Amino acid sequence: MTWTFPTSRISHDGAGTVALEICHRVSDYTAVARRRGQVFWTSSALPDGATALDVHCPVCMADRGLTVSGAWGDPAELTCLCGHSWTPLLPGLPPEQLLRQLVRLALGGPIDAIRYRLIKVDAADTHPNPLQDAVRPVVDEAGRELNRRTWVFDDDESSIASDLLTRAGLREYWSPQALDALSRQSRTEEERLAWVVDNYRALAACSRSTRGRLGLFLARAASRLRPIGVMTMDDLEPGVTWSGVSPVLEDARGALGAVHVVLTAGATGNVDY
Ligand SMILES: [Zn+2]
After folding, report:
1. Rounded to whole angstroms, how far apart are CA atoms 93 and 89?
2. Most buried of the four, 19, 28, 48, 91, by CB within 10 Å?
3. Based on the domain organization, do 156 and 37 belong to the same domain?
4. C-alpha 57 to ligand 1 mean position (Å)
5. Phi/psi of residue 9, each to 5°?
6. Would you say residue 256 lies in a domain?
7. Domain span holding position 83
8. Phi and psi angles of residue 67, each rounded to the nearest 5 degrees, phi first
9. Is the peptide bond preceding residue 110 cis, with omega within 30 degrees of 0?
10. 87: CA distance to ligand 1 center in Å?
């Protein structure tokens, strides 16, 4: 189980919206001020006029103190205080959406780092970067060839690289630091996701119409970054990052950024990085 947390009450409106109440013990949050018995509440509300239907245990009917568990993308599993476990099926809400909604409600927004560590079982300070790891060998190999001048962009390659960078809102004469700063400009998570998916698709399309060393580089990179092409908001598991966006999105952005750095280096001939 990736996420697990006790709740006070889970209710829904019968139409796919859920509300959550959690009673937090202060002692979970601060080692210094351990004043016994002190609590505070997190709660969310259903839409105006909605009737609150409590989620309850199918065996003992308990509707308070249910624990939510599950991995991101999997159905939620609930456990009552007696130890009965079940996967609730709520009208208008796929079971895996229930887990995602409850996690987002429990974290609040913007994400509270302490709550995150309390409810994420394997919470780590550094998040895994599967896409950056996947594309790194391809990027490193290209970087070495550029650096040794065994691969020098011809005019066609420079023009293709320049088109891709322009589409991404980048300029080929910018430094890697400037590219990085640009891609971290404040945007909504939806806009960042759209940018990442759009630029991945441009890369993949370009790889199919480009020959030679650049075509090979683009094809290898696109193949390793394929998960970006089908990424949706549902894939963006919350996590604590300094930029405030999902670690999944940070990883995708970083992986595409590494490809853009190679394109920039090749197009400018500034390959001593
Ligand atoms: Zn029960």
Report:
1. 7
2. 19
3. no
4. 5
5. -160, 135
6. yes
7. 3-119
8. -100, 135
9. yes
10. 12
Band of residue 168 on the pLDDT scale cut at 50, 70, 90: confident
**Above 90 in pLDDT, residue 43?**
no
The C-alpha atoms of residue 71 and residue 24 are separated, in whole angstroms, by 22
Tell me how far the alpha carbon of residue 94 lies from the centroid of ligand 1, in angstroms: 22
Tokens of 52: 């609150």
Last residue of a domain, one of 92, 119, 146: 119
Q: What is the pLDDT of residue 40?
A: 74
Three-point CA angle 14, 20, 21, nearest 5°? 135
Task: Please give the mean pLDDT across all residues of the chain.
Answer: 89
Please classify residue 30 by burial: count the beta carbons closer than 10 Å to its beta carbon, then call 0-12 exposed, 13-18 middle and 19+ buried: exposed
Q: 119, 151, 177: which is the final residue of a domain? A: 119
Strands 53-54 and 9-12: antiparallel
The answer to whether position 273 is within a domain reads no
| Within a domain: 124 | no
d(CA 249, ligand 1 centre) in Å: 38
Name residues with Cβ closer than 5 Å to ligand 1, which is an ion: 57, 59-60, 62, 80, 82, 84
- Contact criterion met (CB below 8 Å) for 77 and 9: no
The DSSP code for 27 is G
Residue 41, pLDDT score: 80
- Answer whether 0.90 is exceeded by the pTM: no
